[in-house]
User: What shape does this take?
Amino acid sequence: MPLIVAAISCSFVHADEAGTLAARPGFKSKEMGLRIDVRGDGWGNANRESIETLLYSVADELLAGLPANLAAPIAVSHTDRSPVVLYERGPAGEYQVQLHASGENWHLYVYEFAHELCHILSNFDENATQQDVRYNQWFEETLCETASLFVLKNLAARWESSPPAPRWSEAAKKLRRFFDHLLSEGHRQLPLHTPLTAWLQENEEQLRKDPYLRQKNEVVANLLLPLFRDEPQDWAALRYLNLDPSDARNSLRRYLLHWYRNAPLEHKHFVAGILAMFRLDDLVPMTPALADTTGMDHSGDLARN
Assistant: This one.
């Protein structure tokens, strides 16, 4: 049953792509001043110029809603370990991203770099170091898994119609297949008849202790994806996450409340929608306009059809 539901979901996702992509103006992060520098060896038969082209395309999808581009460049190197963005900046203040992908496995570059770029957007290094306990890091990891899904889907659709060069249209098929595979994995679906609040009550303690429980993060990532699909400009809302010094040790309730309070008006409705998903909508001062965007009635409860 979960696989059947996921397959149906995939068809709706693909049907909505044309409208989503048409609604977003063309955006070139490189032209806006972003600098991505692919360094070193370990990339197999993939040349660094092709990798950079791909990574800029990933950045285009996530940065289009930002009022300004990233000030610091991003240095990308290969690792034989898991992909990561380091807390330590490079000698020129650059972010240091390490990817495990190699060769012409373009879908893996997209998947990994979108995740690490999401961490950068989320102020991952604002009030913490690698040694600090961050009880809500699981939520950030979940957002970054959502970013990977979002970019895989969007790049597949964009490159099928207008690839940056003719040879990238073939890569679009691989991105599409990988996205469909991930979205339909059985472990990504909530158990039948289990609401998210009940699932979270059962799993949150484990996630707070270990934010890298990927199979659990991926359940919530699948649920978040439609929110970003419908409002892709709200990736910019991540710039207001993790800004409070207490966020590392807060409850999820306080952590998301700080995100809502820090977000500017144009992103509050989106963050309020995520609060509603977790049934934390009592934190939001409800107005008729906001209720219309979050699916809540004016009493603060989730509207039920």
Q: What stands out?
A: The beta strands are 36-38, 74-78, 84-85, 95-99. The longest strand covers residues 74-78. Residues 118 and 144 are 5 Å apart (CA to CA).
